[in-house]
User: What shape does this take?
Amino acid sequence: MRREIEQYARGVRLVARPPHQLAREDWNRAALVLIDAQAAPILRARPHELPPRDAVMLLADPEDQDEPDLYRHALALGAAHLVTVPDGSGVLRKQISMLVERPALMVAVLDPDPSGEVGTASTASLALAGTAAGEHLGLIDARPTRLDLHRAIQRARHDPPAADSGSLRTLFVIDSQPPPEDAVREAMTDLARRHAVTLLHLDPHQADTLATLGGVDLIIVPVRARSVTAPATRSVVAAACRATPHVHVHVIGDAADTDVVAAVAAGIGAGYPSMTGGGPADMPHESPDVDAQLGDTNHHRRLWEVVARYRPRTSHPA
Assistant: This one.
């Protein structure tokens, strides 16, 4: 469970205490108290009762749900929330983010197409635009595709970095299979501690991806205009919306005569929560036309504006 907490506590100082060593001063001074369900009965059994306070959460594993006294523990300790991790991680993330002036942002890119090429090019575009804007980015490429992300970044044309130049640290998959969920989550936690924004290039068709999305703030679904309402796209968008309310579909024109506006309208009609579009950028398999997207600096900026718009901005509690 500590790993789950660390994943969301980017920019927050964590202090861990065994329940029998928790001092009253620790209890009173913490901006937020997170209690493991296994520690709750030990805290309640202390000879001196802890004083009531705000901002207490009781965290439980799925197997703890059968514990008959779980709700009694929550009430006795003054917990405003009883959260099952990882299923209820959105509530945990929201409460922790309120402690940070401008918390780090975790952005996933999910391309519904089996080739993954649009997602690779979009991830490269986001990385280039973010560093050009002066941001310090982490990037995890957990989806091997025929379009190599590292080469895509090197090939792409991009604007000169801002005066306050950004940086990019990348972690790439070195074999043909996506990494296991535990490895991706560990990398997410590591990069989030060091970077304002972390980009995740994930395969939405992998079973582990859905669990990984529990730690994501914003999901971008880049899709060719001709596939905007295809069953695969609808399925990926629906799964993304179950992980976070912040889901954005970006339509890319796939031919010179593509009506991107009509494609965006179709997506809105399908109930997609947020949409933008751009093109044309024809990107068939193994085609040099992928450079049309990689070399379009306006496209880079439009994608980055999606991230800038959703970036959390919270203030310290009084």
